[in-house]
Design a protein that fits this description.
heterodimer; A: alpha/beta; 6-stranded mixed β-sheet; 4-stranded antiparallel β-sheet; globular; B: about 450 residues; 11-stranded mixed β-sheet; 10-stranded mixed β-sheet; disordered N terminus
């Protein structure tokens, strides 16, 4: 059984059709990349998968681990092993990063039938995950993403991913706004999670990130549909030629 | 002026008879003060919507309930458990329906540098309080302050000795006990003098014991003398049908600090009003607070800060959450008088509406008569941030818990204004308690 199966997905935002019959199948342990021009529906796809309100699915189906994802609330999806790394991580003043991570981890652990971690166990666990990402105690004590630089926010997303250990991580333009060093740290975080049971769907505009997170499959998303799929060499081809060919297809 | 004769009639009660039995009835100056009070109240009646400072708070229900002055002390054997703020090691002074209860208090364990008395006893034993009890309430203090003048019977007289640094917090616990068949009103009058260079903390818990209506109408006069620092924190968690009106009149001297925090979460109607007058240069006045209301609760925070001396600072942060059909009011006035140069005054009021039926009225007012000042104010009224809720949910946190986290976080920003960590923790616990109770109610509704 495929880990993720998207069939003929149509979705609208404010009654405007954005996804227009998208099909995608991912197997366990695979890394897929979705590339596409601006406005193709990349972020919409990630929000629909994660379950954000206001993104209405009008047709089609998403199966995650055989379960009907669209029937689940956003928190149920996360508890089932889905993770979205946000393109624009949200600042939450007054909630410390530690409290946030602990509440999230214990919710997910509970759903998995594992016991909750106490404060000491949690701190030890989270420090182990934070260190390779260059996240110190000061960032853990601060309000969630409050006053974080762009790079810090993205590293914080990866920390959350590392803590929650999802079976499928969707990365929505995680590379945007990152310099090359931050990009490497983020990529290492994602690669560390790769395994026979952990998959990633990397959504990006640029090929650059894929030098560090090497995908098994690359798809081109244009005008709400996957218009081409291939191996990792497709990313290089897109980098060389751009999206003109696909944008053109749209206009035609 | 023609007044509605019926308004406030019960509240004024049989003053002529009652006043003869009040403590200190034989003191001429007190008799004059009380008579002036009742006359003023009878003339003006209860404040109505035409009185600007009472525009958003309707106290007409006070008359409907037929509240009358309390003459007998209400019986209470023990403090209701867990109702007052949890302040470790505090020295407790307990009042029941406005009357001091020495048997429930720690009066024999007062910390060094503190003198505390029952106002009633002091009035009976010596009459030398004329200088301390402020002159008759002025018009701007409102008709209910005049009513307090008329019926003041007891209260806390607290003196902090010059130069004393008192680590032990003084905890005034006021318990409202409804009396069957009576709508009890009590009018506590508290006097606090923080003498030169002293440092102390006064905490108040206003709580209820038992079901039923009662009306607490207190006036607290506070002097913070030169170089003194007074931290003054209050929990208003009165019974569900109670009415709570409190006026604090504060005078702040040179380089003195008055640091106030109030959490309102109880009572059917609560008005917490503070008039702070900064008389001294280099003084600091901080008025902060949080308010939580649900059902049909009404909560009003009204503050007036008068900057009368140069180089003083004031700051206000009030944050609240209103659920169901609750109504909130914030009125914050800052007056910078002529000559009060280099004044630094900041005010912020933020309210979270958790229900479409909740309502908030906020009215900041700056009046500035000096030209070298820094003043600002801000007010926001909003809902929980959808994107923040989605972010928390996307990490596995269920909607109800996510909402709780955001509400607590919002309110805790006001609590962070408290400089004393132990106090902040005690208030945080009360806010968490409210959020959890709300969570359960929401859960039952959903079920």
């Amino acid at each position: 059984m495929a880990l993720l199966e998207i069939r003929n997905l149509h979705a609208t935002v404010d009654d405007k059709p954005i996804l227009k019959g998208l099909n995608l199948t991912m197997d366990r342990g695979e890394v897929h990349a979705i590339m596409g021009p601006n406005g193709a529906g990349k972020s919409t796809l990630s929000y629909v998968i994660a379950g954000r309100e206001g993104y209405e699915v009008t047709e089609g189906q998403i199966l995650f681990d055989g379960k009907d994802l669209l029937e689940m609330e956003a928190d149920e999806r996360a508890c089932a092993g889905l993770f979205l790394a946000f393109q624009y991580p949200v600042e939450i003043p007054g909630v410390t990063n530690t409290t946030f991570l602990k509440t999230a981890l214990n919710a997910v652990r509970k759903a998995r039938g594992e016991g909750e971690l106490d404060a000491m166990q949690f701190l030890k666990y989270v420090r182990g995950k934070a260190k390779p990402l260059g996240i110190g105690d000061d960032m853990l004590k601060r309000g969630v993403n409050v006053g974080f630089s762009g790079g810090e926010k993205k590293r914080n997303e990866i920390l959350q991913m590392a803590v929650l250990e999802p079976t499928l991580a969707v990365l929505d333009e995680t590379d945007s706004g990152l310099d090359i060093d931050a990009l490497k740290v983020v990529a290492e975080g994602v690669n560390a999670l790769r395994g026979p049971d952990n998959s990633a769907l990397v959504i990006t505009h640029y090929q650059r990130l894929l030098d560090y997170i090497v995908p098994d499959h690359v798809h081109v998303l244009a005008d709400g549909r996957i218009v081409k799929s291939g191996g990792k060499e497709l990313a290089l081809e897109l980098e060389a030629k751009g999206y003109a060919e696909y944008v053109g297809a749209e206009a035609a | 002026m023609a007044k509605n004769e019926t308004i406030g009639l019960t509240l004024a009660g049989a003053f002529d008879e009652t006043s003869l039995r009040l403590p200190g009835a034989d003191l001429a100056w007190l008799d004059a003060l009380r008579s002036q009070g009742i006359e003023s109240f009878r003339t003006h009646g209860l404040p109505n919507r035409k009185v600007e400072s009472w525009r958003y708070t309707n106290v007409g229900a006070l008359e409907k309930h037929g509240f009358a002055p309390q003459e007998e002390a209400a019986p209470l054997l023990a403090l209701p458990e867990g109702a007052a703020l949890a302040i470790e090691g505090a020295c407790r002074i307990v009042f029941v329906n406005g009357r001091m209860r020495a048997d429930l208090s720690d009066l024999d364990a007062l910390p060094e540098g503190i003198e505390a008395y029952s106002l009633a006893e002091k009035l009976e034993s010596d009459g030398e309080l004329e200088d301390l009890i402020a002159p008759a309430s002025k018009e701007r203090d409102g008709a209910l302050a005049a009513l307090n003048d008329a019926f003041m019977a007891d209260g806390l007289l607290l003196c902090i000795a010059a130069g004393a640094t008192v680590e032990t917090p003084i905890h005034l616990i006021s318990v409202g006990v409804p009396v069957a068949g009576q709508a009890v009103a009590f009018h506590p009058r508290n006097l606090v003098v923080a003498a030169k260079g002293s440092r102390a903390t006064l905490v108040e818990s206003h709580i209820g014991a038992g079901e039923g209506a009662y009306f607490s109408n207190s006036v607290t006069d506070i002097r913070v003398e030169n170089g003194a620092t007074l931290t003054h924190a209050k929990l208003q968690d009165e019974g569900a049908q109670a009415f709570h009106v409190a006026l604090g009149r504060v005078r702040i001297g040179d380089d003195a600090v008055y640091d106030n925090f109030t959490l309102n979460r109880g009572a059917e109607l609560a008005r917490n009003e503070i008039h702070a007058r900064i008389d001294g240069t280099g003084a600091e006045c901080r008025l902060n607070g949080a308010y939580l209301a649900t059902g049909r609760q009404h909560v009003d925070n009204t503050t007036v800060i008068d900057h009368k001396a140069p180089g003083s600072r004031s700051s206000e942060v009030f944050k609240g959450a209103l659920d169901e059909k609750a109504r909130g009011v914030f009125q914050g006035r800052i007056v910078v008088h002529r000559g009060a140069q280099q004044t630094d005054g900041h005010q912020l009021n933020k309210t979270l509406l958790l229900d479409r039926n909740a309502e908030m009225d906020t009215k900041p007012e700056l009046e500035i008569y000096a030209d070298d000042v820094k003043c600002s104010h801000g007010a926001t009224i909003g809902e929980l941030d959808d994107m923040a809720l989605f972010y928390l949910q996307a990490r596995g946190i269920d909607m109800a818990t996510a909402r709780d986290m955001l509400v607590s976080a919002f309110l805790n920003e006001a609590v962070e204004e408290l400089r004393d960590e132990a106090l902040a923790d005690a208030f945080r616990a009360r806010i968490e308690g409210w959020v959890e109770a709300r969570h359960e109610v929401q859960g039952e509704k959903a079920a």
